[in-house]
Each structure stands twice: as structure tokens, then as C-alpha cells.
Amino acid sequence: MSEDQLHNLTPAQRERVEYFCSDAWVALDGPGGHEDELQTRRNFADFLKSIESAEELHCCVDGFHWDTGPETLEAFFDHSLLDRGTLLMMYWRAAPGYYMKYQKPSRARQLFGADPLLNLPEDERPLFRFIQKVERLLLKRRDTPAKIAYDPANDRGEDLTKRYGSEMRKHAKNPASRLYTIPEILFQIT
After folding, report:
1. Where exactly are the structural domains of the chain?
2. What are the tens digits of pLDDT across the range 98-149?
3. Mapped to the 3 state alphabet, what secondary structure does the chain carry?
4. Is pTM beyond 0.70 here?
């Protein structure tokens, strides 16, 4: 997250961003030092209620550690302060281009009710489903102006639209056979 973004927050907001990004809301005071899941859920719910601005929420997402899994970010989907620019950042940081390499199940398998994610490794399905949810939200809000600017071609100096460029170019010729293609509107700056 940029220093400019953090600088524009109040000290209390910066403290909450740090609380979220450092996973301090995770209660590790269960038996044997394990996570107390009930207390963790309470802490996170209290944290969500305390967010005061779209910019604060954006900074939280910007500093999010993806190794904890996308489920945590899904809690932001219903937050009244979630901005379209923040959603677009979530989408591109989840690396949607990676999934273009996978093919849909064959037509015959689809006719017999095969899981549409059949060709996708089991451990990659949660993030793929997250990308699909974010995409639906972005397309639903396509006419809602973003208050927070986000450019997927310049995310901290990296062009995320080209991260899996070879995959995207290779499979763009036959998008109907792909498990996933990125809608053109999601390449735009908010």
C-alpha cells in the first residue's frame, strides 16, 4: 500500500489497517495455542463495523496477505464502503489470467453433468470461485463510478494485465473452449 494512501488516513484508521494486515484479529488463544475460531469471527466482525471510509477499506485490501486465502476478502463484498476501484484491485491481484490455460470439460462431459471446474485442480478452485464472484460484482456495478482510482496496468509499477500475457494471447484465439476469459471492461482504469 502506498504511503500517500496511508498518509490520508487518520491515526485510528492507520491502526485498523495495520490490525487487519498483520492478522492481529486472529485469536490464537484457543486450547494449545490454536486459533479460537469463534473469537476470530467476533474480532473480524467488530473490525468490519469499525471501518470508516472507502479509502481505509482500500488500504486494508491493498495490504492483504493472499496466503491466508480469499475467503477473508469475501467478507468485504457486502460492506457499504466497498468501492469499485477496490474490487478491481481484488480481481487483478487474484491473477485471473492464470485460469485462461484451463479448458472447459468436453461437451459430452458437460451434457452428462460434469463439474464445470473438472479440469481445474481442486486446490485452485477456491481462488477461481473468488475471481468469478468479484467479476460478477464488478459487472453488476459497471455503471457505478469509482471513488478510488485503480489501474491494473500500473499496480505498484507492475502491469497485472500482462502477468499471464502469454497464456492470454495463446488462448484468446479460441475463447469458447476456455474455462475462463477476462471481460474487456475489466482491463479499464477506474
Report:
1. 1-68, 83-190
2. 887 777 766 655 556 566 677 778 888 899 899 999 999 999 998 899 999 9
3. CCHHHHHCCCHHHHHHHHHHHCCCCCCCCCHHHCCCHHHHHHHHHHHHHHCCCHHHHHHHHHCCCHHHCCHHHHCCCCCCCCCHHHHHHHHHHCCHHHHHHCECCCHHHHHCCCCCCCCCCHHHHHHHHHHHHHHHHHHHCCCCCCCCCCCCCCECCECHHHCCHHHHHHHHCCHHHECCCCCHHHHCCC
4. yes
